[in-house]
Amino acid sequence: MQVPAPFEYERATSVDHAIELLNRLGSEARIIAGGHSLLPMMKLRMAAPEYIIDINDLSAELQYINISDNEIRIGALTRHQQLLESDELAAALPIFRDAEKVIADPVVRNKGTLGGSLCQADPSEDLSAVCDALDASCVIKGLDGERMVSMHDFHRGPYETAVADGEMLTEVRIPLRPNSSSAYHKVERRAGDWAVASAGAAVTMDGDVIADGRVGLCAVGPNLTNIEPISEALRGQAPSEELYARVGQIAADNSSPNTDTRGTAAYKTHLAKELTIRSLRKAVARATGTDTGAVA
Amino acid sequence: MTVTDDNTNAVPTPDNNLNDNKPVGYGRMLRKEDPRFVRGLGQYCDDVELPGMLHLAILRSPMAHARIVNIDKSAAEAHPKVKAVITGADLAEQGLAWMPTLSNDVQAVLATDKVRFQHQEVAFVVAEDRYSARDALELIDVEYEYIKPVVDVRKAMDPESAIIRDDLEGKEDNYCFKWETGDKEATEAVFANADVTVKEEVVYPRVHPAPMETCGCVADVDRVSGKLTLWSTTQAPHAHRTVYALVSGLPEHKIRVIAPDIGGGFGNKVPIYPGYVCAIVASLVIGKPVKWMEDRTENLVSTGFARDYVMQGEIAATKDGKIQAIRTHVLADHGAFNGTAAPLKYPAGFFGVFTGSYDIDAAYCDMDAVYTNKAPGGVAYACSFRITEAVYLVERIVDCLAYELDMDPAELRLKNFIQPEQFPYESKTGWVYDSGDYEPAMRKAMDMIGYDDLRAEQAEKRAKGELMGIGISFFTEAVGAGPRKDMDILGLGMADGCELRIHPTGKAVVRLSVKTQGQGHETTFAQIIAEELGIAPDDIDVVHGDTDNTPFGLGTYGSRSTPVSGAAAALVARKIREKAHIISSGMLEASVADIEWVKGSFQVKGDPEKSVTIQDVAMRAHGAGDLPQGIEGGLDASVCYNPDNLTYPFGAYICVVDVDPGTAEVKVRRFVAVDDCGTQINPMIIEGQVHGGLTDGVGMALMEMISFDEEGNCLNSTLMDYLIPTAMEVPDWETGHTVTPSPHHPIGAKGIGESATVGSPPAVVNAVVDALKPYGIRHADMPLTPSRVWEAMQGNHTPPI
């Protein structure tokens, strides 16, 4: 049994209480939600926070999927399992179900949260790529109230986000647009493994052309949020295999992965292209009602 | 005689639960162990809690090769809950810093001079709780002096490489041992005249058994009697006890080793690890019970690994596909200490069976085994003493030959099998295969999977640019070590005892020398006794894993339990039956010759009304009244079984894979496994063993590998990095069997524990390579991760080490 270093434990009774604890206990305090990233790191003694602030009692404030006409708001404590199982979410943003099917395993998904995933900011973490493709914004709360940042500004780099000491992520907001859909593709060595690489795409159609499109990539290098040349290349174009290939190449050109035990840099760069193509193809098929349900 | 009919594909129904037939003997029945395991009520080492028990944690080296300059343990000793901090220097004062390995090498218990692999044991802390023990490790300050580690096995013998084992007198290189088998000249002659020769380097990477339960123990030395009780995760409690006695000087009768429930072994729990010795020392010194349990990382980075062979395979054949010779040179990485667990005369285990299931003219192998700065071990992970590597080599190289001859790999194998009338068959490397009938097993596997239809489907798919592969593996194992004239471990003969006692009411207790780790011994052995005596398995208590309460024997590994201990169980039951027969003659007032045994009772021939049950006899044996002259009371017996030969189970495996041409992901679509382990005792347990082994095989073929960076850092220290397959990666296994009994085993059984682990990796790899045939690929090494498959498709295949 792996055992963490000593730490103190606090249980928050409200979001305001959690923020007050964060400010009182200082920079050595960490929030714990599902704990499936933090606890393994503590057990391996790669992380040794002095204080743990447990927010699992805050489901009334932080655990929800609220869908309106033009926006979906998801509370930071919403579990992976809810994101996987929500039919309403899958109807509006199918990319979530695509991704959640391949995130970890049922035990992790029962406990792990959207907020925890985004705040961990692991470069191989799937939901950051999903939220990026969806042009999501993050609501961050501190003593001075709330602020909202785009995914691009939220994700500062590996394991680094815009959430400052004394603040916490409370909500993710995703705009809903008509004639839109999305998809996610991941390559992993085994079910539940981190991505070797993955790509998510979201498109909005205007008749026969793509009015707007975005691609989020995962595990192929830093700073891959909001790849503007991809959106530029898609804008106003009729969907075609040539277009997907061109955009896939842009994705590959923007990637800078490392060779590691999951794969070579060349392979991951290839996947950035291949999975971008597949995600775009699927997203367009869904948006135009021509999806056959095929896997790739 | 080989029997091929079976109802393997029958499905249990509400009226016929095929697994719960309650046989009085062989057949399907639910495991006697299951009620405790499925309810989480097993009792494992870590469940042992004793009054006043302390906890031990081990400080491990962060570096792979470094001289220890200084250790400052004062801060750790000052921790309020710490009872002792022990270094290698402390152990050296007692002469306990080094211990023998199972291969007659030595291994440091705690490093004294230098560390020789990353995560080697350097010091230990004993504290009041496991948290404090772990915290105190961080208070020990060790100063290391870096030495360039030897990581690349291919460079271990380079003159510029540092000498790892400078603890050995006069050691001036990193050689571990040289070994050869077969006839070099005869093989060269065949190769020189062959129509076709094929050469391929085949790497079997280092993998880890990774049992669900890690290794550990609780050591308790009684302060009055001086008796040590050691609860320990051991597959071989008796062998361990004897070794502890020889090493520590404790008299053997003052040592009791108890192996409680074990959460998977796979060979990982055969060696004696430094942690066990540390816990014993701690309990001796402090006078309190001491528990040591590895964490997951410690298990992966420091305990017995498996494989790590770089094999140059060569095969010679006629142009119409008659295999004539197989030759190989092997470079074997044994890590920092030779911790291989194998019979002493077999430093390469049973690798000598690399000639496979084929009747060939000549064979030769020479092996260079070397030391590197990696964790020690060598034989583990359900490998039948290196038969895994041998089978992988021959089945891969035969497929390479099929590729060169443009011949169907099934046809090539069928053409070269040893024929049934050739058994017992002595191979060109001196192994005497006891029995076999290979073609029916092969044909059965081909029928079950629909081989011809699959080849047609493959042709259609290839025309469309889709990648589908069909892989075949036909293996023969040599298990059940072994005859004591040839085989021993550290001087201990590999025979096994068995004791059986029938109680007055006809219930029984059987005591085994072997130790289950999930194989279901409590069921299988009860069924063996039941078959011989007609006592229901539920009425037979199976005792194992406690040296004070079981006969001596070498334990469970190398698929040896049924071939060796299973034979002992059958023979001890027959001894009882013979005595019971005589007693029954008194009870029935008939001569022994006029009484026949009908399972469960003795009957007067021709008068079935006159009979007594085994239970009646048991009561008479213990009860009042005279017994026949010269017969003692009671009904118990013991034997020690020395096998005449190994047993040679075999099987035909066929795997179908699909490879995504865009992402290079491999999907195992189907897998048919036809096994022949001789007489089957419990088909359900056999199928369970096969399912587990096949899953192991998919893991090794597609994802598992222990790898190191150039500084010798282990890159797979958690289960996030060392991948083990899940239900998602494997298909519904399709199993079948033929039955070719072993001629020398009392019940004809051959052992099944490792067949699937041995046989499945080449089937999967052959299937993937077959799928990649359109790319002109003849070979690719494991693990066939998407990245490695994609690189092969680009023409960039590289060996994994």
Mean pLDDT of chain A: 95
Beta-strand fraction estimate of chain A? 15-25%
Number of helices of chain B: 18
Helix content of chain B: 25-40%
Compute the separation of the termini of chain A in Å.
41 Å
Spatial arrangement of strands, main beta sheet of chain A: 4-5-10-6-7
Which word captures the global form of chain A?
globular
The biggest beta sheet of chain B reads: 7 strands, mixed
Structural class of chain B: alpha+beta
Biggest interface, CB < 8 A: A-B, 30 and 37 residues
Percent range for helical residues of chain A? 25-40%
Report the mean per-residue pLDDT of chain B as an integer. 95
Q: Walk across the major sheet of chain B and give the strand order.
A: 3-7-1-14-11-12-13
Q: How many beta-strand runs of chain A?
A: 13
End-to-end separation of chain B: 45 Å
Class derived from helix and strand content of chain A: alpha+beta
Q: SSE order of chain A, as H and E? A: EHEHEHEEHHHHHHEEHEEEEEEHHH
Q: List segments of chain A where confidence is low: pLDDT < 50 over at least 5 consecutive residues.
A: none
